[in-house]
Design brief:
18% strand, 9-stranded mixed β-sheet, alpha/beta, 487 residues, 16 helices
């Protein structure tokens, strides 16, 4: 295996090897762990979790009907990357597929065949183009813009007709979103066809991100996605080892799913995600300026921020955010508990990107507020951003990250593999020592191998852990030393 640790274009592990040190892979991994331990001690630290973190597959041997726990794989999509898989092994996705296979599955579904042909022949939108083929979000953004344009155009035309006294009832009245799937596609008008495609794509994303078939506990007690939940729990549990005197960590994510929330709930970790209230929770970005603290001195106003506390920013929205009305609520975005597809399918607006309330992509609330928070954190002095499972395919996010490089003290740590074709490789070509890239080359002949930059191995092998064995060993050693002192 070839582990790499790039600072600019320089692989520091290879450089040390060439100097005659002759390190073994284990010592190389130790050097990365030591470097990351220092990263966790940085004052201003943020993580960006991409869709790769929730992509999780298990290997199922052809001769077996039950998955083998020893062959769990995370952040994996070998088929999409053109990497061969073992002939006698099948793979089952128990997490959320990344965007490329999601788009491919939707575009190739039988239910989308008629709509795909109409888009190409009438709107000249070919979903096989590079613009759309691997990104369902870009496809949806385009359709929302078209729907907005045509609806405004129709409104203006009706207004002109009414002013001239010749207004007539529309031949194809604008269908309600909850009704469009019940009306034959060919019977709809142009605007209604666009809206029906948006609804179909939205519901497809909703079903995939809710992942109800794997989330619901089985007869055995545990849900099928239990290994992924445990991985997220381990990630957040390890981050709690960070020095409690430092500011709380910022976790940004492009994922719509609820794995971060579920993991932190199971661990009893408190987090701020932008919503306030009790029974009815509504979005209020002011909450990101608050912290959960405990009173240290009853006789004085002395407070300390609690240790188990994070800020969670879902910058592309979430499957449990909907448009909702609330008395005296400026932001009409509501968070619901225990979301299901049956509960959400009738909602007019679900806050998964790019379906904002009334505006385009990242311009309207809550997206504008979340992106503003992201920019504010990146612009802090001595800030480090660590990206995991993020492919740098989102221009909105990339622009803010690139702007942060105007601050000399900013550092970007990418957990991923640079190639001549991907965006991570282009970042390395910048030859900026403030850019670190950590990962591992995929070994030849090891189809089911999990590289170091996959979420699973990053969490298990790179992140330091003082909560379990290390802490127990230190406590045991301390107790033994105390016994020796007292004897």
């Amino acid at each position: 295996m070839e582990i790499f640790f790039y600072k600019a274009k320089d692989n520091v592990l290879e450089s040390q090897k060439n100097q005659g040190n002759g390190e073994q892979p284990e010592s190389n991994l130790k050097k990365i762990q030591d470097a990351f331990l220092k990263v966790l001690d940085n004052k201003n630290l943020s993580f960006l979790l991409g869709s790769g973190c929730s992509s999780f597959e298990i290997e199922i041997p052809a001769s077996s009907t039950e998955p083998e726990s020893s062959s769990v794989e995370a952040n994996d999509n070998k088929a999409e990357q053109g990497i061969p898989r073992p002939v006698n092994t099948t793979f089952e996705q128990i997490g959320i597929p990344v965007m490329a296979p999601l788009a491919k599955e939707f575009y190739n579904s039988k239910e989308f065949k008629e709509e795909k042909e109409w888009l190409k022949s009438h709107l000249f939108i070919d979903v096989t183009d590079n613009t759309f083929c691997a990104n369902l979000e870009v496809f949806l953004s385009t359709l929302h813009s078209l729907s907005f344009y045509h609806s405004k155009k129709s409104t203006n035309e009706v207004a002109v007709e009414e002013a001239a006294g010749t207004a007539e009832a529309e031949e194809h009245p604008r269908a309600n979103q909850s009704e469009t799937d019940e009306i034959k596609f060919s019977k709809l008008g142009e605007v209604e066809k666009i809206d029906s495609i948006i609804l179909k794509a939205r519901n497809f994303l909703l079903i995939k991100c809710l992942n109800e078939k794997n989330v619901i506990p089985s007869d055995m007690g545990a849900s099928k996605d239990y290994p992924l939940i445990e991985l997220y729990k381990q990630f957040y549990r390890k981050l709690l080892t960070r020095n409690s005197t430092l500011p709380r960590l910022n976790i940004f994510t492009t994922n719509y799913d609820l794995y971060s929330e579920r993991a932190m709930d199971l661990l009893g970790i408190h987090y701020v995600n932008g919503f306030t209230g009790g029974i009815s929770k509504f979005f209020n970005p002011a909450i990101f300026n608050y912290a959960l603290a405990e009173k240290m001195d009853l006789s004085q106003s002395k407070w300390s921020v609690i240790d188990n506390f994070f800020y969670l920013y879902k910058i592309h929205g979430s499957v449990n955010w909907i448009e909702g009305e609330g008395e005296n609520k400026l932001f009409k975005v509501k968070e619901i508990n225990e979301p299901t597809f049956d509960r959400l399918k009738g909602e007019a607006t679900i806050m998964i990107h790019p379906t904002p309330l009334k505006y385009n992509a990242s311009l309207g609330s809550p997206y504008s507020d979340l992106f503003r928070e992201f920019q504010k954190k990146l612009m802090q002095n001595n800030n480090i951003l660590v990206t995991i499972g993020y492919s740098f395919s989102d221009e909105h996010i990339n622009n803010l990250i690139f702007q942060a490089f105007t601050i000399p003290s900013f550092r970007l740590i990418v957990i991923g593999e640079p190639t001549s074709k991907n965006a991570i490789g282009k970042l390395m070509e910048l030859n900026d020592s403030r850019i670190w890239i950590i990962g591992e080359r995929w070994p030849d002949g090891k189809d089911s191998y999990i590289p170091l930059h996959f979420f699973k191995r990053f969490v298990e092998e790179v992140l330091p852990d003082l909560t379990a064995e290390d802490l127990d060993n230190k406590m045991e050693k301390t107790i033994q030393n105390l016994k020796n002192l007292l004897s």
